[in-house]
Structure formats: structure tokens, C-alpha cells
Amino acid sequence: MKQDLGKEITRIYENLRRRKQLDEELKMTLDAFLSIVDEKADNKELSFTNDEWKQLGMLASRSVRDTESLWQFTNFIAEKF
User: Fold this and answer.
1) How many CA atoms lie less than 13 Å away from 44 in the CB half-sphere?
2) Could you say which of 20, 26, 39, 73 would form a disulfide bridge with 63 (CB–CB 3.0 to 4.6 Å)?
């Protein structure tokens, strides 16, 4: 019984460690993406309305919270690009 519990704790720990790494990668990817968007907007290669900028920012900040929010952000990006 203790061995099974130990295995499960180890498995959970590894899953949490992988999740943390993926979260960090996601944040870095989002930062890089938003930097590119800002640069393109500054160079007039991209044009968003004020509402679209607000929506982009809101969706980007929510995207690191849960998978559904990440899907919404991804779908917004796909529509705009």
C-alpha cells in the first residue's frame, strides 16, 4: 500500500513539474508573440481597433489561467492573422 502511494505521489510530482515547465514556456511564447504584435503595430503593419486591442490584452492575460481561455486567445489570433 505504501509503495503504491509513493508511486502515485511521485507521478503527481512529475506531472506538476511538467505542468510548471509548460506554463513557463507558454508565458515566454505569449510574451514573444505580444512583442511581435506590438512591433508590427508600431510599424503600421498591423491595425487593431481599440476594442480589439482590449480584447487581445484580456484574452492574453486570461490564457495562462486555463485551457478554455487559451483556446479563446488562440482562436482570436487565428481570426486576426
Assistant:
1) 0
2) 73
pTM of the complete model: 0.70
DSSP symbol at 39: H
Cell of 58: 484580456
Q: 47: which 3 cell numbers? A: 491595425
H helices present in 1-81, as ranges: 2-42, 50-62, 67-80
42-70 confidence digits (pLDDT tens): 998 888 899 999 998 899 888 888 889 88
Query: From the centroid of its chain, how far is CA 31?
Result: 9
At residue 73's C-alpha, the angle toward residues 33 and 18, to 5°, is 75
Whole-angstrom CA distances from 58 to 4, 46, 72, 73, 81 are: 43, 18, 10, 9, 18
User: CA 28 to CA 4: how far, in whole Å?
Assistant: 36
Radius of gyration of the chain (CA): 18
